[in-house]
Amino acid sequence: MLIVELAFGTEPERLAARPAHRALLTRLHAEGRLLAAGPFADDTGALLVFPGDREAVDRIMADDPYYRTPGVRVVGVREWRPVVGPDR
């Protein structure tokens, strides 16, 4: 399982790109390729949780231009091993 952490800037391009990105996230979730995603309460960034391996997540990020949009910065992609919850 992998988590992706994003940091957001104030560039208007980010908000313009967000609807298409969220539609893709909805599809990925329905397909079982995304467990959860959402912005931090203060909208300074977001966290995404993927069940796949690094190659699968890299492909998802490469296919979604949101991750290269001004105002969106990928802070990190890290393996995560939850001890409680699904897929533990």
Describe this structure in words.
By secondary structure, the chain is α+β, with helices and mostly antiparallel strands. It has one domain (2-79): Alpha-Beta Plaits. It is built from two helices and four strands. Strands 2-3-1-4 form a four-stranded antiparallel sheet, with helices on one face. A hairpin with a 5-residue loop joins strand 2 (36-39) and strand 3 (45-50). The longest helix has 19 residues, at 12-30. The chain is globular, with a radius of gyration of 13 Å.
Defining key terms:
alpha+beta, Alpha-Beta Plaits, four-stranded antiparallel beta sheet, 4 strands, 28% strand
- Give the % helix: 25-40%
Given this structure, which CATH class is correct? Alpha Beta
What is the string of helix and strand elements? EHEEHE
- Tally of DSSP β-strands: 4
User: What fold name goes in the CATH topology slot?
Assistant: Alpha-Beta Plaits
- State the major sheet: 4 strands, antiparallel
- Individual helix count: 2
The low-pLDDT segments are: none
Strand neighbour order, sheet with most strands: 2-3-1-4
Reported CATH architecture: 2-Layer Sandwich
Strand and helix layout:
Layout: E1 2-8, H1 12-30, E2 36-39, E3 45-50, H2 54-63, E4 72-79
Antiparallel strand pairs: 1-3, 1-4, 2-3
Describe, in short, the structure shown.
It comes from Streptomyces millisiae. With 88 residues, the chain is of the alpha+beta class.
